[in-house]
Predict the 3D structure of the following.
Amino acid sequence: MEQSAQHAQQLDHLAAGPTPGPSPFAAFGMPGLGGPAPAAPPEPRPILELEGEEYEDELDALSDWVDDFLMPVYGAEVTTASPWCLRWQEHDDVVAWLHALWLAYQQHKDPEAGLSGLFVWHRDFLTHAIAAIRAPGGPLSACMTSPERPAHRLLPGPPPSARTEKTDPAETGTPGLGEPGEPTS
């Protein structure tokens, strides 16, 4: 019995593996080899959540990428089927789309994304985002549809939902207004 208990202890000890000690590679600062763990990059935040100078700095960097890279390479021509706006920074929805596209670009061009990283960016991000932004009925549809006729117009957004406009029936004197399950119109 005693010998079986000793064997069990030895097996447990062997199964546990060696206790981690100082790595001879720690001096090289390589993570996974006993060196310090890399600092986590800051978590990206959607541009529309930023304010003040932080928003302006991010918008400036985004504008440089859009104007110097994205549009010259992927902008194609401006047509009624593919409008554009020289003042796209004033369209909040377009800014949000382009910022998300830019963040994805940065992630997928990183060497850690591998050799197919940019292909994935083209397939999964670029095509869809450009189609949504430049759709004939999209956010830029009231803007420039011909390079010879620059135009810019912000279309009105939808009104607030009926839920946010509900009033207390006692205040209006209208019985049943806002009652669950009853139509309000």
